[in-house]
Amino acid sequence: MFPSVSDVLTMPLIRRGRPRLAAGSAGLDGRVRWVHVAEVADIGPLLRGGELVLTTGIALGDDPAELTAYIDGLADAGASGVVFELVRRWTDALPAALLAAAERRSLPVITLAQETRFVAITEAVVAMIVDAQLAELRAAEQVHETFTALTVSGAEPSEVLREVARMTGAPVVLETLGHDVLAYDTAGGEVAELLANWAERSRAVNVAERTAYHPGAGWLVTIVGARGNDWGRLVLVSPDSPPHRLVVVAERAASALAVNRLVARDRESLERHTHRTLLTELLATGAPPVDLATRAGALGVPLEGRQLVGMAIRPETTPSATQEALRDLAEATASAARRTKIPALVGGVDDISVRALLSLPSQSTVDAALRRLASQIRSSPTAIPVVIGVGTTVRSITDGRRSMIEAAHVANAALRSPGTRSYHRLDDVRLRGLLHLLREDERLSAFAERELGPLLARDAAQGSRLIDILRVFCEHGGNKSAAAAAAHMSRTAYYQQLSRIESVLGVSLEDPESMLSLYVALLAMDLPC
Predict the structure, then answer these.
(1) Would strands 219-226 and 344-347 be described as parallel, antiparallel, or unpaired?
(2) Cα torsion angle, 97, 100, 104, 108, sign
(3) What is the DSSP letter of 11?
(4) What is the DSSP string of 146-174?
(5) Count of beta carbons in the 10 Å neighbourhood of residue 178
(6) How confident is the model at residue 292 (pLDDT cuts 50, 70, 90)?
(7) How far is 136 from 413, CA to CA, in rounded Å?
(8) What is the distance between the alpha carbons of residues 437 and 527, in angstroms, rounded to a whole number?
(9) What are phi and psi of 446, to 5 degrees?
(10) Which positions ≥6 away from 222 have C-beta within 8 Å?
(11) Do residues 489 and 466 lie in contact, with contact meaning Cβ atoms separated by under 8 Å?
């Protein structure tokens, strides 16, 4: 906003005084906030910082200590520089002590060889400052209007970042607080260069304020969030300390991004809430409400005269996903259904998965539609690893409940060994699927306890890991050598552990039926919630 000392020296009025930089060249980039004419030896305490002091030097003596104190006073007060007119006090050159002190403090000292009207210099520099401030205000107004329009129009983050790059000519990145890149614009640069080792570089950049410049990284960082819920950072790459205009752009862009997320999430949350209500009513015990088909049809999801398929989408990595993760997954699933033109009710009806009821035309190929939808869900920009379970295709709303429940069982069964399938049906999960269908049956838990109880008690009492040894043995089909290698044990030691298991359980692991029974008990014990 303010001109630098170098800018002032280029003014025609100053040039006519034949200026010369006598010392302090390192401070030429300092900003001139005001011009102050002063013929006082102890002027420092009267300044506020950023002043360019004009003087003839008539109030200064010849004592080197006093001259040094004069310069130190100006530097301590934050003056941007001092201009000496070499007419009355000194005519050829300034004292060496004064110049040495200015060089040491990086305070620009300029001499004028000809008499110059200080009042004219003051008016000219103040006019330059005012013009710069007006230009800054006009630019800020333009920035405000631009980002207000983007906010009102519901612009996506990519559009907001594109405008930031256009206004500043600098690369910009939107990241999460966990340093994952959400969006970026290279401003014509190389993507690989901008994003190389991004997470590592970003973790090293910590700022104490909501908007701050990190000179080491050359980043202007602005926190993004609203309603006390910060969720990201906007990073503007600026090798040099950014002018005020760039700060305004970054902060307005961050506000637009925060509002966009709030508006989009609130709008979609209302839609998801409506879908979730219908799905909950469908899954409830008893006949579904008579108006459910009408309400679903009003949402663009016809349920009558269609092929209905239940679907459950569950994150792979966590047994109980966060509400935010499930909300994002529901939005990604709904968006995928829209892109593939498959009408669907989509919502989170529990704390572990997203449920959907797909509505397909009577003559369409179900598997082809499922493959398209699963592919879109997995390729979503916010995609996380998921397991997708699919229920039986049905043709009535009442049977839709059965298809959705079956899909949840399939997803849960496939969670332990998801494999590479884009989606799973009951046929794909085989024994695990059967066990999941029976998992609430007390007879299954009693069977697992009867088969494995002594071994679990032995491990708990002695701190052994015999249950893990048995699991590896069963998973390798009774192949002792392969199981020993998988357990990272010598065959001799592994065989000894197997003998101990046989002794504790009172069975022979050579007996196929015994091994199968134990493996079923292990699978039942390991059933996810």
Answers:
(1) unpaired
(2) positive
(3) S
(4) HHHHHHHTT--HHHHHHHHHHHH-S-EEE
(5) 10
(6) confident
(7) 62
(8) 11
(9) -65, -40
(10) 210, 211, 233, 234, 236, 250, 251, 253, 254
(11) no
pLDDT tier at 371 (50, 70, 90 boundaries)? very high
Query: What per-residue confidence (pLDDT) applies to 417?
Result: 62
The pLDDT, as a whole number, for residue 179 is: 81
Distance of alpha carbon 495 from alpha carbon 481, whole angstroms: 9
In this prediction, residues 26-38 reach a mean pLDDT of: 88
CB 221 within 8 A of CB 205: yes
d(CA 170, CA 339): 33
Would you state the torsion angle of the CA atoms of residues 160, 161, 162, 165, taken in this order, to the nearest 10 degrees?
130
CA distances from 335 to 130, 164, 266, 443 (A): 51, 27, 15, 42
pLDDT band at 79 (very low <50, low <70, confident <90, very high): very high
Structure tokens at 61: 């003596």
Q: Which two tokens stand for residue 458?
A: 């032995």
In tens, the pLDDT along 127-170 reads: 888 887 787 777 777 777 888 888 777 777 888 899 999 988 99
Give the Cα-Cα-Cα angle 482, 487, 489 (nearest 5 degrees): 90
CA dihedral 325, 331, 332, 337 (to 10 degrees): 150
Evaluate whether 331 touches 276 at the Cβ level (below 8 Å): no
| Helix boundaries (H) for 10-95 | 12-15, 64-77
User: Can you read off the two tokens belonging to residue 454?
Assistant: 């002594």
222 in Cβ contact with 251 (< 8 Å): yes
Residues 6+ apart with CB under 8 A from 365: none
Q: Is 68 helix (H, G, I), strand (E, B) or coil?
A: helix
Residue 390 has a pLDDT of 93
How far, CA to CA in Å, does 326 sit from each of 278, 321, 351, 416? 18, 6, 8, 19
**To the nearest 5 percent, what fractions of the chain are helix, strand and coil?**
50, 15, 35
149 and 120 in contact (C-beta within 8 Å)?
Answer: no
Please write the tens of the pLDDT for every residue from 397-416.
999 998 998 898 888 777 76
Give ∠ CA 257-261-265 in degrees, rounded to 5: 170
| pLDDT over threshold 70, residue 111 | yes
pLDDT exceeds cutoff 70 at 268: no
CA distance 372 to 361: 15
Pairing relationship of beta strands 386-394 and 354-360 according to DSSP bridges: unpaired
How far apart are alpha carbons 405 and 284 in whole angstroms?
Answer: 11
Closest CA to 124 of 182, 83, 157: 83
Tell which wins on pLDDT, 149 or 496. 496
In contact, 356 and 337? CB cutoff 8 Å? yes
- List the structure tokens of 247: 């700060």
Nearest to 515 by CA among 484, 485, 486, 472: 472
Scanning 196-243, the segments in alpha helix (DSSP H) are: 198-203
